[in-house]
C-alpha cells in the first residue's frame, strides 16, 4: 500500500513539474516545450536507422530480419525510438533506477511521434470510447519490483504516449502469472522458453489492436510472451512501442551485472 501511495505521489509531482516548470530538453538541457528538442531527438543513436518492421532491429537488407522470417513472433510490428546507447541508455537508467519519473512524459511523447510516423493510419479515435481505437497498455512489473520502485516506468511512458495520441490506456490488459525473470546468463532462445506463459490477458480483446509499451527491448522474449497472451485473448494485432532497442550485437551478449537490467 505504501509503495502504491508513493507511486501516485511521484506521478502527481512529475505531472506538476511537467506542467508548470519551464521546459528543458532532457538530453541537452536547452529550451524545449516538449521535453526533448528536435535536434537531440533526431541525433539519438539509431533514430534514423532502417529496422526490421517486425522486431525493430536495425536491419537494412530487407523489411524483415532473418530471425523474424524464420520464426515470426506474435506481435505484428515494433516501433523503437532509438538504440539502447548513450544518451538514451543514461535516461532509461535514471528513470528506472534513479526513480526520476519526470523523464517518462518526454520519452512517451517522443515515442508517440515515432508511432505516428510509422503508423499514420492509427489516428486518434473519432470520439471518446471509440470501440475501434487501438488500446495502449504496458508490460507489467512483478509485485515485488513495483513495490520497490514505487512505479512502473513502462506504464508512465505509456500514459504519455496514450495522451499524446489521444488513445485509451488500460494497464490491466496484461498480468504476470509469475514474478521471476530468467537468469541473465540465458541466451535468447532460452529466455523465450523461460518466459513462455509468463503473462495472461484476463479480459477478452475481440479483434482489437493493442499497443504494448516497454522501456527496453533486448531479445524480444518478454514482448513475445506478452503478444502470445494478448493474441490468445482475441487481439487482432499487437504493436510494440519501445523507447530503446538493444543493437543486434549487444542483444546476443549476456547482460552484465553492472549494467541496468534490460527487458527481455
CATH architecture: 3-Layer(aba) Sandwich
Question: Percent of residues in helical segments?
Answer: 25-40%
Biggest beta-sheet profile: 4 strands, parallel
Head-to-tail CA distance between termini: 28 Å
Q: List low-pLDDT spans.
A: 252-263
- Shape label: globular
Query: What integer is the average pLDDT?
Result: 83
Which CATH top level class fits? Alpha Beta
Elements, N to C (H/E): HHHEHHEHHEHEEHEH
How many distinct folded domains?
1
Remind me, CATH topology?
Rossmann fold
Task: Work out the radius of gyration.
Answer: 17 Å
Structural class: alpha/beta
Q: Roughly what fraction of the amino acids lie in strands?
A: 5-15%
Number of helices: 10
Q: Please state how the strands of the largest beta sheet are arranged side by side.
A: 1-6-5-2
Number of strands: 6
Amino acid at each position: 500500500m505504501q509503495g502504491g501511495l508513493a507511486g501516485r505521489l511521484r506521478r502527481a509531482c512529475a505531472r506538476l513539474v511537467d506542467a508548470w516548470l519551464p521546459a528543458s530538453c532532457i538530453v541537452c538541457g536547452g529550451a524545449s516545450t516538449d521535453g526533448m528538442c528536435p535536434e537531440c531527438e533526431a541525433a539519438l543513436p539509431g533514430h534514423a536507422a532502417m529496422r526490421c518492421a517486425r522486431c525493430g532491429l536495425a536491419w537494412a537488407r530487407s523489411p524483415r530480419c532473418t530471425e523474424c522470417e524464420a520464426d515470426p513472433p506474435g506481435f505484428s510490428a515494433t516501433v523503437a525510438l532509438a538504440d539502447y546507447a548513450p544518451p538514451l541508455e543514461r535516461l532509461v537508467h535514471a528513470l528506472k533506477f534513479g526513480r526520476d519519473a519526470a523523464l517518462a512524459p518526454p520519452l512517451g511523447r517522443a515515442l508517440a511521434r515515432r508511432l505516428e510516423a510509422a503508423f499514420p493510419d492509427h489516428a486518434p479515435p473519432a470520439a471518446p470510447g471509440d470501440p475501434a481505437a487501438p488500446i495502449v497498455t504496458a508490460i507489467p512489473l512483478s509485485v515485488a519490483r513495483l513495490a520497490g520502485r514505487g512505479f512502473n516506468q513502462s506504464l508512465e511512458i505509456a500514459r504519455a504516449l496514450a495522451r499524446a495520441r489521444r488513445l485509451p490506456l488500460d494497464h490491466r490488459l496484461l498480468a504476470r502469472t509469475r514474478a521471476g525473470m530468467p537468469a541473465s546468463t540465458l541466451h535468447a532462445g532460452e529466455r523465450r522458453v523461460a518466459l513462455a506463459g509468463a503473462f495472461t490477458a484476463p479480459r477478452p480483446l475481440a479483434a482489437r489492436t493493442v499497443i504494448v509499451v516497454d522501456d527496453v527491448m533486448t531479445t524480444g522474449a518478454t514482448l513475445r510472451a506478452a503478444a502470445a497472451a494478448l493474441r490468445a485473448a482475441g487481439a487482432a494485432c499487437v504493436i510494440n512501442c519501445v523507447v530503446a532497442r538493444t543493437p543486434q550485437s549487444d542483444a546476443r551478449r549476456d547482460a552484465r551485472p553492472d549494467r541496468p537490467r534490460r527487458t527481455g
